[in-house]
């Protein structure tokens, strides 16, 4: 089954259970300035859960575009290093807004995995929140999960909250065992960070409201929010142990191989670069399709940083010229029929990526040399001075996370405090420069007006009162 078929199967299954099929929302969350990017399937439904917004349905299903590359959830550093993390991924979800609760949520998930997807129940492993006896009993007594395949886990991983206050509740996570030849252990063991037991589905039971004092009171209408990574379930279904080996990624990596002349599988480090390229291509292209543009702050800066990291991996693979923009076509082939915004914006996406690449390539080699020099000077256990980090950023366009990424695996630190001081100094300089040059660059006609009529006097402070009324 191809990735796109699995997405469809999921949506069809829940549509068959009466869920409204809802199209993915934008990666830029609407009306939520606190959130950098949409990072879970529930984000577009946040106000429905909070009871501020009503919809003509009480249950829904979606495959939501997500980016986890900034803010609370940041998987950027994991990409290329784990088998299961992307910066951009799709989260399949089913939602109940005060309709069904734990019984059905668990039953649907189990039925979808073991009957629809025909997964071997022996390869599934479950966790519940340590105090959630109700979920534990449903799994063990109704579903019949053996007690050695279920674990009670603490609040860090198994208690979810929307924020410091508001809806919250216990989770139950479903893991797939990729087999003893993959390193890792089940949740709750010291080896849980491995890729053997991979979390495929997270069921959140919104059961309480937390007030300012931190007290929990039961919600009158408990709700359900679930999330399953499309790429993770696809890896399971395609019998591969790494998300980057599924059909969709294989085709993106093949495109990257064509453009770089590298063979996948020849060299482990190059394979990492190819995977990172495929991952970052998706984030960059989908963010552009949703209207984010490269910039030096906010969302646009995250986009720029991801793209620059990708450029560096292209350089590691030997490419001296812009080429990432040429991979967009392969992405549109893979995902453009489901996500029409990608197809519609293709030409723009390619153009912006190309301009960004061409600009950055001009300073990339010099910047890399400076990092190399600075690393040699610092030596193992040493620190790259803030001033150098600032030069890398300001002159060569190296965001500090790119420098950190290059130095990953070494024992060399970054003087981030020193960097911040340099940034602050630059801001102060910029402000000072602005005051002076504004005056000096006044167009001639304005100077003439001033000569003729004298300077205007700003009266707003004295003639407008606190209510904004002219007195
Ligand atoms: P993990 O512990 O593996 O990092 P998570 O607990 O952070 O996952 P959730 O926030 O519970 O993930 O998201 C729900 C589901 O979305 C996960 O069970 C997983 O299948 C998928 N998912 C989460 N993060 C990623 C990612 N970076 N790349 C791909 N899939 C992801
Ligand atoms: Mg995570
Ligand atoms: Mg987890
Ligand atoms: Mg989880």
Give a description of the structure.
This protein is 45% helix and 17% strand. It is globular and about 75 Å long. The chain is α+β, with helices and mostly antiparallel strands and 471 residues long. The chain contains 17 helices and 13 strands. The strands form three sheets. Strands 1, 2, 5, 6, 7, 8, 9, 10 and 11 form a nine-stranded mixed β-sheet that branches. Helix 2 (46-49) links the parallel strand 1 (20-21) and strand 2 (59-67). The relative contact order is 0.08. It has helices at residues 3-16, 46-49, 102-116, 133-143, 155-158, 230-237, 247-260, 268-289, 298-316, 328-335, 340-344, 346-378, 386-396, 400-406, 416-440, 444-453, 460-463, and strands spanning 20-21, 59-67, 69-70, 73-74, 88-96, 124-129, 150-153, 159-161, 166-177, 197-210, 216-229, 383-384, 413-414. The protein binds adenosine-5'-triphosphate (ATP) and magnesium ion (MG) (3 copies). Residues 173, 199, 202 line the site of one magnesium ion.
